[in-house]
Every structure is written in structure tokens, then in C-alpha cells.
Predict the 3D structure of the following.
Amino acid sequence: MHSSTPDEEVQIPTIPVDVFLQEAENLCKWSLDDARALSAVGITEEILNDLPVRAGACREAQSIWNKDYRSQQEAQKEWAQQVPEAYDFRNDLLASLRFAYRKSEYWRKLHRKQSSNQDDVT
């Protein structure tokens, strides 16, 4: 069973995660030949065997993050492209409603209330 790394031991990588993981996996493979010497300095065979599992979990988490991040970027890009048209539609709709309800007492009250609220803000 694998335990999670305590928060105080978590470090932010200074290189891209995919490069970091590839280097960790390479070092793990190379270190298997030196397992006995490494155990003398506290790097046990269990740690070496855990490394590919942890790297795989990190790679999976990174893939999910990338997917979500790219989806969010695409949505923001699409919104930026559509927002001018949406505001034009909104303005046209409001103008049409003002014209259609120009004689309505409800509309006049609402317009007076909005005008007084804007005066209070400025």
C-alpha cells in the first residue's frame, strides 16, 4: 500500500512535469543495477520499486490537468469570439423592448428606478 507524501515534503518542480517524470523514470532504471549501494545511503529497493508507480500516477494527474486546462482555454477563446455578438444582441433586444414598452407605466417606473440607481452610484 502506498502512502501519500506529506505536504511539507512536496516540492514544486523547476522543470516541466513531463521532463521531470521522464528523468525520474530514467534514473530509476539506471539505479536498479546499483540497488545494493543505494540501500547503504537510505534508498531502498522499495523506494526504487515505488518510483514508476508514483511517476505513473503523477503522469495521469498531469494528463487530466492538461485536458481540463486546455478545455478551459478553448472555452475562454470561444467566449472572447462570441461576446461582441452577444452584447450587440443584448443591446438590440433592450432597444426593441424599450420601443415596444415605451408607453407602459411599468417600463417607465423601472426606467426611473434604474436612472436613480445610476445617479446614486456616480
